[in-house]
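Kindly draft a sequence, keeping tokens residue-aligned:
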Amino acid sequence: MIPVIFGCEGPQLTDNEKSFFREVDPIGFILFARNVVDKEQLYALTSEMRAVTGRDALPILIDQEGGRVQRMKAPHWRNYPPASVFGDLACSDEPSLAASALRLHCRLIADDLRRSGITVNCLPVLDVPQEGSSNVIGDRAFSDDPELVGMLGRIACDGLREGGVLPVLKHIPGHGRALVDSHLELPTVESDLAELSSHDFRPFEMLSDMPLAMTAHVRYTQLDDKAPCTLSRIVISRIIRMKMGFRGILLSDDLSMQALSGSLKERATGALSAGCDIALHCNGNMEEMQDIASAVPFAATSLEKQLAGLIYELHRLEPADRQEMEQRYNQMMQDAGILQTST
């Protein structure tokens, strides 16, 4: 098994993909809109992934945040609002309603994922946006108040876990100050450690006990003027591990994003050498996946067991009554003045 999470090309695995995944045995998979057609197809795809790897407790990831970022869409799944809706609600003298609605929001998302065979959701976004920063985060963030972001982030994690799905904190140690989109180029943040610690880092410190986090492809020049976080041993060891106290499993963000330079081999081995436990490659390009697989070391058995244990623990939870959850959620959103569409 290799410590890499791979994407795939389409709504089902090709024969070439099946052969490749059997041979290299990635630690998990990630899904995007190109992989999602409807409920029956999606469950068949995740079942194929389990069959290819021979593992039931398989990490299968997706970004199902709500708002702009939801890979599973209507009419087959509910349209969910972005995170900022709950931050705004919490600031409008309705903190109790915001907390209850957010918890149920994430509980419903988890139910969607679990019924589809998906075990991990790349949520919550704990980035704290700044005035003038790139809109790549925007309304995906709960708020520009770090303490509120941390509080709502924990509620989101609790809702996902109650629904049998693992959360992933992103983008540690903070993407909210970035002036450009890291999908397209490398963001550079000039702020000093004191400013970052009191603001950007705070939500991640508040949730440092969570089991999974994803790095930011951001270069913090006052911490490491050469490498972005994903490739920086300094940022990962001194900031994420020591200062923040995060002891969970650390994933890189997508290695194929343009914020990173060098070959895919260099990016993958660089991320793992810097301290990421797992490298993430999303686009499903077979040539790139082969290059990465040829370069990375095998994963430690302890990492596989740790992930499997986390997934098994949550899957022991009994599914809740979907209809009852929908009714409560609809009433809460109506009370909040937020129009929602369900299927």
The CA atoms of residues 255 and 281 lie 5 Å apart. The longest strand covers residues 26-31. The domain at 2-26+38-46+64-290+302-335 is CATH 3.20.20.300 (TIM Barrel).
